[in-house]
């Protein structure tokens, strides 16, 4: 962690703990009031519990030009980013992506797509382009290895924040908060101030939910298609098959949610987040949109001569999303869920 970010976040949190005006805004403030002193691990936990809705900033009487100069969303965002980087394996790769995400993601998508096109077979379905066995041999390690890296990062995080044995009740509580995006509702359901300053909006909350549920549906589509394949029903599947009933709504939700987040992001004040990683965050959102959109397009062009190039683009997006999971903002979902579980333990 930086020598500056933790002490500055601690200074601001101690002032917030004395004021307590924002107590009902999100899970951060009730967590603050449960303590009087804050170790480095406590600051890291609060930073990952923060959803950067920014409502506390616009409600605060101690922001600039007040001498306290509070900007808690930015202070926690900087600690949060550094925690992801410090716990990542290897940490330098996380720092590179956070600061050069658009270029890195774009080059990786292009490289994978070109390799697929060079190695492709003929045909008008994606298994004609690359056989199922080859896809499994390539993508299974590319999916499992990043998950293993994330597991190591979460273990480091859990030790840092003093997490104890996890019970089912803790996981259920965290799942409820994550599923409803409760910490983006402004405390009273009116939404947050991310993109409209002092006006409340649920747009960011809705877009986050669309991305989350869209991603889960797409994963369920892939899983169900794999099961059907090994049961003797290979792709392509009809419009009313299980993979399509999961995949088409999932792709639409993922694409629309990611495009919505990309449109909202420039409307937010960069000074209320970590400006150094703005590009990396935008790259991640655009990568999600490309993954969902190219999947839908692939379904639309099945049976035509466009299958090979669209399939190559889709594989490039999916492979890049998987490989960069431990280093892109994709990892925030894992850390935030862990923070919610840790928060449930402290109640």
UniProtKB/TrEMBL annotation:
Protein name as annotated: Tricarballylate utilization protein B
Cross-referenced InterPro entries: Citrate_utilization_prot_B, NarG-like_sf
UniProtKB keywords: Membrane, Transmembrane, Transmembrane helix
Keyword Transmembrane: yes
Organism domain of life: Bacteria
Residue spans crossing the bilayer: 102-123, 129-150, 210-233, 245-264, 276-300, 306-327
Native organism: Primorskyibacter flagellatus
Keyword Transmembrane helix annotated: yes
């Amino acid at each position: 962690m930086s020598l500056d970010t933790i002490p500055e976040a601690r200074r601001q949190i101690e002032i917030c703990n004395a004021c307590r005006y924002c107590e009902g805004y999100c899970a951060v403030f009730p967590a603050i009031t449960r303590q009087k002193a804050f170790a480095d691990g406590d600051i890291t936990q609060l930073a990952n519990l923060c959803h950067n809705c920014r409502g506390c900033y616009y409600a605060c009487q101690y922001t600039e030009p007040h001498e306290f100069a509070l900007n808690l969303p930015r202070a926690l965002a900087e600690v949060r980013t550094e925690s992801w980087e410090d716990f990542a394996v290897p940490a330098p790769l996380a720092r590179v992506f956070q600061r050069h995400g658009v270029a890195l993601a774009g080059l990786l998508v292009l490289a994978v797509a070109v390799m697929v096109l060079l190695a492709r077979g003929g045909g008008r379905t994606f298994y004609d382009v690359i056989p199922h066995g080859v896809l499994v041999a390539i993508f299974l390690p590319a999916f499992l290895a990043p998950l293993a890296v994330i597991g190591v990062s979460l273990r480091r995080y859990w030790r840092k924040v003093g997490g104890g044995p996890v019970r089912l009740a803790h996981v259920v509580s965290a799942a409820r908060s994550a599923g409803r995006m409760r910490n983006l509702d402004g405390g009273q359901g009116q939404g947050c101030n991310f993109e409209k300053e002092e006006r409340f909006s649920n747009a960011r909350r809705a877009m986050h939910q669309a991305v989350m549920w869209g991603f889960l549906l797409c994963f369920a589509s892939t899983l169900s298609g794999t099961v059907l394949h090994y049961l003797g029903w290979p792709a392509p599947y009809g419009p009313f098959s299980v993979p399509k009933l999961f995949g088409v709504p999932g792709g639409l939700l993922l694409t629309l949610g990611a495009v919505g987040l990309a449109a909202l992001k420039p409307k937010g004040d960069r000074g209320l987040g970590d400006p150094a990683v703005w590009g990396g965050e935008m790259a991640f959102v655009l990568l999600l949109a490309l993954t969902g959109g190219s999947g839908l397009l692939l379904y639309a062009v099945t049976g035509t001569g466009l299958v090979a190039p669209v399939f190559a683009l889709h594989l490039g997006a999916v492979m890049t999303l998987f490989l960069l999971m431990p280093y892109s903002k994709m990892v925030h979902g894992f850390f935030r869920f862990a923070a919610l579980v840790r928060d449930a333990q402290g109640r």
